[in-house]
Task: structure prediction
Amino acid sequence: MKKYMLCSILLATSSSFLWAKTDEAILAEAKTNTVTVAQAQTLPDETGVTLNGKIVRQLATQSDEFEFKDKTGSIIIEVDDEQWKSLQLKAGDKVRILGEVDVHSDQPTDIDVIQIERVK
Result:
């Protein structure tokens, strides 16, 4: 019985990891899936997307979370430190992001950014 319980626990905790998309798969999907913020907020978890818009603000000093906005609304994006620091992102910057829709049960949908670039 203990072996069965242990196997069940291991399977439950690892199954989402085993089925998660790789960054490469998400980027490939994102490159062919340009959407608006309003559309992104309705997509399933782990959908690869490209969004174009502006940085509104950084949520807190040294935070990896930013508010991003396009003509249809705003959404929180999570940008790894090495990406936002090297770009020196700030409010008003026009950017293109490629990332993954991240749906939560207890907070609003956000975007986990894989690539970000400043655009003119």
